[in-house]
Amino acid sequence: MMRRRLAAGVLAALLPLTRADTPAPTPPRAPWRAPDLTPVTVHPPPDHAPIPLVENGTPVARIVIPQPRPPRDLLAAVETLNLFFRKTTGTALPVTNQIPEGPALVVGPCPASAALGLDPDAMPVEGFTLRTEGQKIFIVGHTNSPHDGAIWGLYDFAERFLGIRWYLPIPQPNGDDLGICPSPTPTVTMPPAWIEDAPFRHRDLWPDTSEPSRGAGLNMRPLHHFLRDGNSWPIRLQVHTPNWSRVTDYVEKRPEVFQLKRDGSRDWNVLCYSHPQTLECYLEQIQNYLDRKPYRLGIINDAITVSPADVELACYCPACRAAWDPEGGALGTASRIMASFTDRLARAIQTRWPDRHLTVIFLPYLNYTRAPDGIRFPGNVEVQLCGMPGLALYKEPAVAAAEQANITAWIAITGRKIQNWHYSVWPAHKTKAAYQYPHVIQRFYQENREKTVGSFING
């Protein structure tokens, strides 16, 4: 899931590399232009002969990791790449930390890559460059532990130059390699190439297993890693928090912070976001966090979550009723309630802790998804916007236009890029036939490259 693409599902095959037993097509399709893969930044290729990697099932190149103590994730990625080499050619490439005179795939910075101007610190976060020179393939990436762009470069190499596609998870750790689609050939030769890429910073794929309620079933972590799952964006949301139903002091002494039901009783699992006491409780919990005391609030990396319980808001207190929008439709009846609370919280944070870089992260969802008119946040609020129809339905022009308009409106309110929350399962889980929509995914992220930092993908 790299630049302009976040999920697998595209089915067109990458044209194979030059082979000893198969004449090259005329004119050859450049592998960096494979239509089912991420569009990358392409520089004019260096002027040198193709680099032999495997000839008639025999490795002639080596994989080099120049670092004396490579990170475990990088070693695992090299092992995965050699799995792909075995499936493609029947053999693996020897792995060493010494750069040989002959052909080599060099992973990570070294003096030779530095001489070509490949500076990992100058690359975008998690970005990488793949460049050939002479008989070497250099893959150098920006490292921001635990995120190493060189790993994404290895996987891009596997897709683009080995013709690998991987669609299904392995059944269990170290189990059969299910769903890996190679392009078998005894000979692989690397053409001259120079490409760069960098991912969206937020690329969460969930769940990690096929039975998430039990933490069991198929292990999808290796597949997700190959699809560039990760999140290097510092502002993170903790969904559906806080839940103060077990905070005795609030239940017994501050019942007004909880949603008032139509019959006059309180819903202890849902907050009232209009009452001033709710804001004061938030600020009290933030102070506990800053004082390193126990706190009951969703806070990650100095980002304070605003995300109600997983139900539509329906508070019947006078203040919520006054802000209720009966014309807001299914996605907007409570939008003004939640946006107003978020605005008040953000301004109070700026007033109380002006020297702390605290951010409010708000998840518009259910009946408070649509952006309300007339509100502008003070600058310390980021929105993670839930795509309620399901990303597959963006294929419908009216749905896509409405979602795009809502993205534009929230960006205007926050003054910054949004994060997305997308459902890859809707509506595919209700169909009997295979439901493919990779073109919808590609188009959305290509059109919103400068509007979103990426997505949490809920499967």
Describe what you observe in this structure.
- There is one protein chain.
- By secondary structure, this protein is of the alpha/beta class.
- It has 2 domains: 31-198, Chitobiase/beta-hexosaminidase domain 2-like (Chitobiase, domain 2), CATH 3.30.379; 248-458, no CATH class.
- It is built from 10 helices and 26 strands.
- It has helices at residues 72-89, 111-115, 149-161, 221-226, 248-253, 276-290, 318-323, 335-352, 397-414, 438-447, and strands at 41-42, 51-55, 58-59, 62-64, 95-96, 104-107, 128-133, 136-141, 143-144, 147-148, 165-166, 180-181, 188-190, 194-197, 202-206, 209-211, 216-219, 230-231, 258-260, 266-271, 299-300, 303-306, 359-362, 381-386, 418-423, 452-458.
